[in-house]
Specification:
Strand order of the largest sheet: 2-3-10-9-8-4
Protein name: Lipoprotein
Keywords: Signal
Number of helices: 5
Helix content: 10-25%
Order of helices and strands: HEHEEEEEEEEEHEEHH
Distance between the termini: 41 Å
Structural class: alpha+beta
Largest sheet: 6 strands, antiparallel
Radius of gyration: 17 Å
Shape: globular
Length: about 190
């Protein structure tokens, strides 16, 4: 089952690395912001369509939702809790902080996933969350610590997720070696040249 999970994670990674920037802003951690109270709910009537995310320990994770498939995993120890649910409350100008989650209720426990580093994934509210942004990451290997963990690498259609082909062992190794060396770049900076 780890093989399926790691294959799915790599597919998500490739999807995330080629996608547009996320729809939320990330701000300072609670230690930096000294947040002593939760923000007031937005009363302007603006509806924000949030990406399913949570932030803990200065890492932003996105919910792992792939055609309703939920891979098997084992929860580890609790590493924190959510402190603020943004859906139906925060304004579009709100800057997300540690403890924030788009759809999880405040107080939802966040767990490590046994066999995987918390820098890669966590579990909360019965779902997996995969690292999407980590300000401390300088390379893809820092953001996605998957070296030696990928069993198979598949190419799927972006149209319907159907299987196209599977990388050979040699091609998988070459691809991952080059991929993990890449510098992590803020997606919004990519638009400046267009």
């Amino acid at each position: 089952m780890k093989r399926v999970l790691l294959t799915c994670l790599l597919i998500i990674f490739v999807s995330v690395s080629t996608a547009c920037e996320t729809t939320h802003k990330t701000g300072a951690s609670p230690a930096q912001s000294n947040r002593t109270s939760l923000p007031e709910c937005d009363t302007t009537g603006v509806i924000v369509d949030w990406v399913d995310f949570l932030i803990i320990n200065d890492i932003t994770y996105e919910g792992f939702h792939r055609n309703g498939e939920e891979p098997e995993y084992e929860k580890g120890k609790e590493i924190g809790v959510t402190s603020f649910k943004l859906d139906d409350c925060a304004s579009p100008d709100y800057i997300s902080q540690n403890g924030d989650a788009a759809y999880l209720e405040a107080g939802t426990p966040i767990y490590e996933v046994k066999g995987y580093p918390v820098e890669l994934m966590v579990e909360a509210g019965g779902s997996l969350y995969i690292a999407e942004r980590n300000e401390a990451a300088e390379t893809v290997a820092d953001l996605y610590p998957i070296k030696g963990k990928v069993k198979d690498l598949h190419l799927l259609s972006t149209e319907n997720d159907s299987w196209i082909s599977t990388f050979t062992k040699e091609n998988k190794k070459a691809f991952l070696n080059e991929l993990l060396k890449l510098e992590v770049v803020d997606p919004s900076s990519l638009r400046n040249g267009w």
